[in-house]
Design a protein that fits this description.
The structure is a homodimer of 203-residue chains. Helices cover 75% and strands 0% of the residues of chain A. Chain A is mostly helical.
Chain lengths: 203, 203
């Protein structure tokens, strides 16, 4: 890397740092290009030498959030060797997902709330980062639904992820009475166990 | 009602109409008090004689959305008399929920995306309107989980609603590849049947 490229890369990292802090503190609405420029000591226009647009900046922050989520989910379960262990692994992953969401509430919300500018398409690197997280579910599902082909199992994995996500998202919303952590954990665990029992009963 | 009160009420309805149209077309970000005032022919300040603040206006629009959702869910299932019918009723309610969300995408999203101004609390009437919709789930659940007490069944109802909501919300999101209607319906139906089979197996 030349000196110029290295300087640019380091300024880009500082821009992403600043955006990450702003989102963590104030959510997406708190992300102002002008304030970020001031914070990293460049002009407003110079930001767009570092990222193509605000969409890319938000996706770069999301990329870090996904990497930390991936690490949190990886820490949760031991590899499962039996169906019973696979159920426990799915419960553990779901609870780890919920804990991560609670502890990173605004950054986690942005993963779902951010919509690309009209007509813009999410870049491949961002899509593939999201997809790689499904392995935490698909591993145990291979044991729990061995009769399904890969496409069906992928769809089932997406369904279960979305279902757990829904319980977490509504449970953490302060709009209705927010659910206390222990009650939310019970809901999540019950949902996963119900679905797993349903899988076993239907097999 | 005096003439003045009737005029005020009719202007309030027109304000809510205008806000509803704006949200349906452009989402929450498209809701501008100034434009609404222009549309109903009053001054910006006069809006706040009709509603306390924008939060109230958004909740009033949400109230209409919930009433239409309630009607859509009521049209879906026949009353269930057996456990098998209760499963079909839950599947029908879940699919009706998904269809409503798809057909009222922006208005439906606002029910969940809108957050009250910092420190403000959702008024009781709005909370109780949301709660009344749970009867569509709790009726069938009484047949499917008769051994649970009411509190446990309410929590289970909330869990199942949140799970279906999650599948619908992520399925309708254009961010990842949006799921075609038939595939989404399959996901929803599978989730509900899995949970019901899990309930039956665990009883």
């Amino acid at each position: 890397m030349t000196g110029t490229a290295a300087r640019r890369e380091s300024q880009r990292e500082r821009l992403i740092d600043a955006a990450e802090r702003a989102i963590a503190e104030k959510g997406l609405a708190g992300l102002k290009a002008r304030e970020l420029a001031r914070e990293i000591g460049c002009s407003l226009g110079a930001i767009y030498n570092l990222v193509a647009d605000m969409d890319e900046l938000i996706l770069r922050v999301g990329s870090r959030t996904l990497a930390r989520l991936d690490a949190a989910l990886s820490a949760a379960p031991k590899p499962a060797a039996s169906q019973a262990e696979a159920v426990e692994a799915l419960v553990a992953v779901a609870l780890a997902y919920s804990a991560f969401a609670r502890e990173n509430l605004r950054l986690w919300r942005v993963l779902f709330e951010h919509r690309m500018a009209e007509g813009a398409v999410m870049p491949d690197w961002a899509v593939s980062e999201q997809m790689t997280l499904f392995r935490h579910i698909l591993g145990p599902l291979r044991l729990l639904a061995p009769e399904r082909d890969e496409e069906e199992r992928n769809l089932l994995g997406r369904t279960l992820f979305s279902a757990v996500h829904g319980v977490v998202a509504i449970g953490l919303e302060e709009k209705l009475v927010a659910v206390p952590r222990r009650a939310l954990d019970r809901q999540i665990e019950e949902l996963v166990r119900l679905a797993c029992r349903g899988l076993a009963a239907g097999a």
